[in-house]
Amino acid sequence: MLSNTCKYALRALIYIAKFSKNDHRIGIRKISEDLNLSSPFLGKILQNLVKQKVLVSTKGPNGGFNLARPPEDISLWDVVVNVDGEEYFTNCLIGLRPCKAHDSSKPFCPVHFKYDELRKVTTDFYKETSLKIIADDIGKFEDLVRL
Question: Helix, strand, or coil here: 79?
Answer without folding.
Answer: helix
